[in-house]
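[retry 2/3] NIBAN protein: previous attempt timed out, resubmitting with same input.
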Amino acid sequence: ATVSEPAQKCCTEHIQPFLASILEELMGPVSSGFTEVRSLFDKEVNEIIQDFQKTNDITKLKENVDQLMNLPFNSVKMEPCYLKVNHLQELLQDLKSRFKIYHIDFVIQRTQNFMQELMENAVYTFEQLFSPSHQADSAKVATSIEKVKLRVLK
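[retry 2/3] NIBAN protein: success.
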């Protein structure tokens, strides 16, 4: 009871007024990281479509879809996504001194983990919605891939 009132007053006067601006500042790098994940998925699926249109090879298409499933674990391809979030390091340094926020690396690492998880979900959903073995007409495969990609991105 004796701590509650001073704690509420402290939060109301010294923290709450800054929460909206802090959240807005932090969301910039986080948002750009997740946008980069989306762009990477889009680019990879477009490459699968282009490759299939050149070759018309269902076996190669299956291999490409299998490779897509490994995308979340491909650190080289995911690195540009992760780098977008590294800007949090600079933003959080200011917050660390003002609000005693520690474990900045943990915040960045968790954000990058969520990005990887998002990519895992995207490729898994893509695989579930698109099955090259069920495609009878190879002329419609590219259209089908595009529709599934758009559905996943939605």
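[retry 2/3] NIBAN protein: The chain has one domain: 28-153.
[retry 2/3] clearing retry counter.
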